[in-house]
Each structure stands twice: as structure tokens, then as C-alpha cells.
Amino acid sequence: MPESTAVSTVPAAILDALQLADASWRPHLAAGLEAMMRATPDYLPALAGDDYLPTGGRLFAAFSLPLDRVRYVLVGEGPYPRAESATGVCFMDGAVGELWSDTGLSKPVNRATSLRNFMKMLLVADGSLQADDTGGAALAPIARAARAGGAIQTLAELQDKLLGQGFLLLNASLVFRKHVAPVIDARAWVPFQQAVFAALAACRDKPTLVLWGKIAEQLKKVPESEVFPKIQAEHPYNLSFIGHEGMHRLFGPMRLLRKD
């Protein structure tokens, strides 16, 4: 009997998670998973039996925005390494509710280093804060004014604002595992990202890739990404991100922290 050449089936637990993705994305994401199976047949079966973040079937939660509404693809490294924080949407920390306190940013925001620096960058970008003075004393009056009205109050509102601008909030690796280096998981997801980029490349209006950090930057090597405009910066956990002029030019006009 000839040896079988059939491709192994994507585990049901992984396929079930596609239900959180918008219907326009599902065939493309399924094709990406099949490409992963061809490239590394053992990866997804092993992942399905492992402990990873995000939990709760949120593996593809980033794909809630319909394919034809994507204008930017913001690529981070991977999920937050805490179960309560990892939502499947890059930089959206599930442990954060309120954004502000009486003295500045809320404690949960301050604990989420990347989100904290992202918010400070937004405040610098819209002229509310000076890049060389982002400490508590400078933030306190901004926070009091924000809480009094005119500013969004919660992380859920910030996520909605980003979605409204057409952001696909994607991680280079869709999973975090304590015992696996993020760069290794990210490498395994490259065939999946190729399918994502191929789907976006077929859209009439090509989105802009916004690449944060060295792991995300590796996606520039993916051939399917060549057709997209690209903007890159250091990862937001670096303080220097707050003063990145390219990010100011991109995000400043969006006024993400202000109420509509």
C-alpha cells in the first residue's frame, strides 16, 4: 500500500476558535492554518494539547473587523503573558478597565508597560504632553480634565476607536506559552500571517502595516507583505517609543483619546 501523503487535519479546538473571527476572514484564516500544518505538521496538534494564552477561544479575536474595512495592520509581538490580560487583540490588556486616575494614568494602565507608553505617545502626539516631561506631575492635570469629560474613559473605548479607524490589531505570534520563546512561536505562525497578508493584498485599498518591535519587523521578509506601505517603530515597552515622530504623525490626527 502506498504511503499516505494527506495533510494532517487542523485540530478541532483550533478551528472552533475561528467563530470569533468575522465571517469574511474565516476562509482565509482556515487556509493559513492549513499552511501551518504543511510547514510544521506537529505544531498545531501540540499547541491544542498545551497551555497557552489567550484562553476562552479568543485565538482569532483580532479578526472581528471585516476584511474590507481594514486600513491599518498594527502588528505587535505576542499576547500579554497573563491570563487576565491576554485578549487575542494586540496591546489590549483585558485587566485594564479605566484609563485614568486622579493623579494620572490608572494603576492597571501603569502596570501594562506597553499600553502606558502607547497612551503617553498619544498624549504627546495630540499636543497634550511634552515628550521630555511625561511623569506624574505633568499627567495629573491632563487626567483630571480627561475624567471631567471630553476624553474616552476605558480601554474598551480605545479599542473601539482603533477599530473605527480600521485597525486590525494583530500579534506576530497569536499565542504565548511560558515554556516557549516568543520568537519560536512567531516563526511557526509565519505561514498563517502569509495567508492574512494575501487576503489583504487582494483588497482594492492596500492597508498600511504598522510594525512594533523586532519580532513584528521580521514580517517585512514575508513576500506577501511587499505590496503594503509600512511604518515601523521600536516596541512600546521602550520609553523611546513615546517620542517616536513617525508614530506621532500617524496617530496624532486620529485623536484616539478624545470622545467623538
Helices and strands, in order, run as HHHEEEHHHHEHHEHEH
Q: Could you list the spans in which at least 5 consecutive residues all have pLDDT below 50?
A: 1-7
Radius of gyration: 19 Å
What is the distance, rounded to the nearest whole angstrom, between the alpha carbons of the first and last residues? 67 Å
Strand content: 5-15%
Record the SSE blueprint.
Elements: H1 12-16, H2 26-39, H3 43-48, E1 72-76, E2 100-101, E3 104-105, H4 107-111, H5 113-125, H6 136-148, H7 155-164, E4 167-171, H8 182-188, H9 190-201, E5 208-212, H10 214-217, E6 230-233, H11 245-251
Parallel strand pairs: 1-4, 1-5, 5-6
Antiparallel strand pairs: 2-3
Description:
This protein has 260 residues and is an alpha/beta fold. It has a domain at 12-88 and 160-240: Uracil-DNA glycosylase-like domain (Uracil-DNA Glycosylase, subunit E), CATH 3.40.470.10. Helices cover 37% and strands 9% of the residues. The strands form two sheets. A four-stranded parallel β-sheet has the order 4-1-5-6. Strands 2-3 form a two-stranded antiparallel ribbon. Helix 2 runs antiparallel to helix 9. It starts with 11 loop residues before the first helix and ends in a 9-residue tail after the last helix.
